Amino acid sequence: MRDLLSSMLLVSCLVSGIATVRNCLAQAVIVEPERKLQPAGPGRQPFDVTRHRVPLSELIVSVPRDAIPALVRPRFVSAEEVGGKLKDADRVLGVSLNGEAKAYPVRILNWHELVNDGVGGRPVLVSW
Description:
Blueprint: H1 2-16, H2 21-25, E1 30-31, E2 37-38, E3 47-48, E4 52-53, E5 71-72, H3 79-82, E6 92-97, E7 100-105, H4 106-112, E8 114-119, E9 122-127
Parallel strand pairs: 5-8
Antiparallel strand pairs: 1-4, 2-3, 6-7, 8-9
């Protein structure tokens, strides 16, 4: 959960335009007043996309820096080729740019957390 909050914090800092991550981390814990949920389809649990800001003193290092390698130039397969490797209930993060769409399984992102890739002729960084 803390890894998820840390990732959300970094994105929140970047989106809100705070000059440095340290300044962002130094702020008090702030949670949006209302929980925000992104629908996931009929009969499925929604994604909780409520923003959080956590002070540096609340973060715990669980693995050393750079211990989890990013995926670089991942290999993609068609939906037909996936077969039983991806279940209907598995969650994915999707990106669609310039007519090209890719799905990044959350099960894999739980292990790698970052993907350096390209979608629709544009470089993208997928962060989990």
